[in-house]
Amino acid sequence: MKTWQYRKIGLLLLLLAAGAARAALPELEFIWQQANAQAAAAATSNDWQRAALTYQQLADAGVRNGPLFYNLGTAWLQAGEYAAAAAALQRAESYLGGQPDIARNLSIALARRDGRENAEWPWYRFVCAWHFKLSVYRRLQIAAGAFLGIWLALALMRLGWLRAGRAVLLPLLLVWVVFTSSYLATLHQEHQAGHQPQLSIRKNPNASMPRKTANVSCAAVENGRICGMVESVNRFFLHEEFES
Fold first, then answer.
1. Residue ranges of E strands in the chain
2. Cα gap 149→167, rounded to integer Å
3. Measured between alpha carbons, how far is 204 from 7 in angstroms, rounded to an integer?
4. CB within 8 A of 9, min separation 6: which ones?
5. Long-range contacts of 37-42 (CB under 8 A, 24+ apart)
6. ∠ CA(123), CA(126), CA(130), 5° rounding?
7. Please, which contacts does 172-181 make with residues 24 or more away whose CB atoms are closer than 8 Å?
8. What is the pLDDT of residue 130?
9. 22-49 per-position pLDDT tens digit
10. Residue-level pLDDT at 24
11. What are 183-205's pLDDT values in tens digits?
12. Residues 6+ apart with CB under 8 A from 238
């Protein structure tokens, strides 16, 4: 088969894949709205579990974004499934960075999972605070900027400006290594999380939890209360990698 025929077939497959992705968006948007409606009407842990399973359908379909994992984690938290809630909220933190509502709900999930009154944050969250405070996209941008700076520093040295090039080369190398490692670690964790088997969920949870008002900001929530849900999202990420 000639080269142009291979290219034609490849282009056709690419167009078909793009069309399939566009066709899936309305269905995903419908599931998102359905899950939000279930969460808004939830009054018991059974209701919250139903909403969480609907959000989980989006994750199983390959949707990857912070609002989805935040709502998924918050629904599991309201349903009393604290391990599942913590796992989802940690994924939300990777996409959105450190935010007060994520931190509050995550601390509640970790405390209840471990049977404690207050969560005990692991030491590495303080040592590597930037890894958890910055979203994976921002960390990737910093790594890319440092990589560009490294080449600029090498260019300066090549042009004879050795002192200036050497002055910035080592710090840029350090920044590039640190933030690239951070990005790759998050990428690996997200890949592993996306291929884990379904977490064990209670079939008939009986405990009831108070209904929560949607879109409640953390600043407006009393201490110990769970922060509200996200009702809208700009777009869906239909892949597992952080490529946007």
1. none
2. 12
3. 54
4. none
5. 39/71, 39/74, 39/75, 39/214, 39/229, 40/214, 40/229, 40/231, 42/75, 42/78, 42/211, 42/212
6. 135
7. 172/146, 173/146, 175/142, 175/143, 175/146, 176/143, 176/146, 176/147, 176/150, 179/139, 179/140, 179/142, 179/143, 179/146, 180/143, 180/147
8. 86
9. 445 788 889 999 999 999 999 999 999 9
10. 59
11. 999 988 888 776 554 333 333 33
12. 21, 24, 61, 62, 63, 64
d(CA 211, CA 244): 35
**Residue appearing with tokens 């909403």:** 51
- The amino acid that residue 52 corresponds to is A
**Cα dihedral 217/186/82/118 (nearest 10):** -70
Both tokens of 41, joined, read 């009407």
3-state secondary structure of 135: coil
Angstrom distances, CA of residue 237 to CA of 43, 65, 215: 30, 6, 22
Tokens of 109: 């999930």
- Characterize 39-76 residue by residue with b for buried, 16 or more Cβ atoms within 10 angstroms of its Cβ, and e for exposed: bbebebbbbbbbbbbbbbebbeeebbbbbbbbbbbbbb
Q: Which residues contact 190 (CB under 8 A, 6 or more apart)?
A: 64, 91, 94, 240, 242
Task: Return d(Cα 50, Cα 76) in angstroms, integer.
Answer: 9
